[in-house]
Write a structure and sequence with these properties.
By secondary structure, the chain is α/β, with parallel strands linked by helices. It has helices at residues 42-50, 83-88, 92-110, 114-129, 132-145, 162-175, 192-205, 216-222, 241-276, 282-294, 361-369, 403-408, 416-424, 442-455, 472-484, 496-502, 529-536, 558-590, 598-633, and strands at residues 4-13, 16-26, 31-36, 57-62, 68-71, 180-184, 209-212, 225-230, 233-238, 320-331, 335-346, 350-354, 376-381, 387-390, 460-464, 488-492, 505-514, 517-523, 541-543. The longest helix is centred in the middle third of the chain and has 36 residues, at 241-276. It is extended, with a radius of gyration of 35 Å.
Length: 636
Amino acid sequence: MSLIRVNELALEFSGTYVLKNISCSLERNSRVGLIGKNGSGKTTLIRLMLGLLQPTSGEVLRARHCRIAHLPQNMELPPELVLLDYIKSSRPDLLQLERRIAELSSSFVSNSTSGLESELAAAVEEYTAKGGYEHDNEIKYVLTSLAFPETEWKKRIGDFSGGEQTRICLAYFLLMPHDLLILDEPTNHLDLAMITWLERYLLKQDKPFLVVSHDREFLDNTVSTIFSLREGKLSITKGNYRSFKEADDIARLSQEREFERQQKFIAETRAFIQKNIAGQKTNQAKSRLKMLARLDIVQKPQQEKQVKLQIKTSKRSGNDIYTLKEVRFGIPPELELAREVTLFAHYQDRICVIGPNGCGKTTLLKILLGEHDICEGQLKTGASLQIGYFDQHQVALDESLSVLDTIWQLVPSAPRGYVLGWLARFGFSGDEVEKPVSVLSGGETSRLYLCVLIHQNPNLLILDEPTNHLDLDMTEALLEALTAYEGTIIFVSHDRWFLSRLATKFWVFRKKLGQGKAFTTIKEPDCGPERAIELAFAEPERVKAPPPPREKKRKLNPWYLDQIHLQIEARNRQLGKLQEELGHIHTRLSRSDTYSDQSRILQLRAEMEALEQQIKSTHAEIALLEEKYLSLSYEE
């Protein structure tokens, strides 16, 4: 039986059908990607599947005892709860057993009866059988993979940022026991390494899942079926997103051509009927009239509203945008984020900044904006820069304003029609323009922020996660606009499809290890996106310390060096003999007849320890002699 089966489902709000005639199923081997424009009803369909909403008509059938783990887009977490305690609560059965074992152990210490011992043994056996110890390892694996080291496991959830709390939710639902996993935009707030890890984790679990995502690469790498919502209707395509896109383009083109051919045929047939209905060919005309009545009409493909963006610059900037030389920056006084940073940004560069979450990408952008100071080094900003900044948190938007007033305040003397036309380019029309900013969804807020940003006609765009919450079509429209943009772009993105098509250069946060200490710098490798991503998350690069300058000293007698060399050779011969003797002792200790004489065993072990000590001291003498020989060899 299917885990979830949806039959002829429909949902109506205020006389308008949000979803209509939806039929689909989630099987035990399903790997489904649910896609559609923002507001198309993806989250609503999931809520109907889970029984959180009741349909207007149709039915949802769920398998009995089917355990479903559902990660929603926004979830309130208990701020006072400790991270590890919250994560462990994903398995209440194991948590209860842990407490039972602790209680029984405490009682057993003060009153060690056979009955308590049996109860404790049974509880431990049940805990083991349910995979308690393996679950502890899985908790460690998932949390560390999502960038929560053990040093943070005792922190309150309220002390983590919003993005970190989203990752905590993801960890919780991944660790829940489930037969079906439903994830609503799980890649938000994950860096590139985490997204890659999540792809592998989902495939390794070998359990069915449905995922809502606007990340094309993620969908291509994880799903085998696409559920696409358009105009309240659902289409199902086997394959990943790339397969769906190819099949969808072909189907739409085929339907369009078939529609045009049929419309031409209908027009020609009607013309024949009109001309001959009262003439000599009246019977033929009547026959064709009946044929038209029976004709199965091909529907014209629905033309979706395509957002067309155009980003203009009011004036050209200079050729040199930014010059950073030996810059060190961080969050003073304690946290250093990067040092030894030497970078250049030039006119019409498209620079993607890549690095793990928390490495300092946003801080670097704030430095370029002049909102954060460097600790040392030189930063030169180019002339005639008009900067448009996309803040991933969109804090610059006034939540008390409506969508319409947000744009109107930029051009207070403009007519209402101008503002409405500008908003329509970003998908805002009808009653949507009167919505307060405070009630907008993540996707709507991102679109409005872009609307404000592009209206400023900047010649430099600094973008921090511009595709977060944007649907696939809007992301494609933004990419098209940025590609045609005549200014300079410096951006942060975790969307591999987007960054690989926009970036011409990469600034990569790179860990290094020099003189026993790790630090981070930023490099501009001459490579493609895949290699740049790999470098950002690779093991620290080891930097060799420069050799100390040699001091000029008096020349030495070669005879003296020869004597040291003779001493080294003598010590090596002595070392060889000691190692040979030790080998003989190991051979004697390995014989079975040796163990019949206890005193002989003790003697051999004493000799072995003495030889090992001699070998160790001889090694040390040779090392000192060699160091002395080499240092004297460089003297002049």
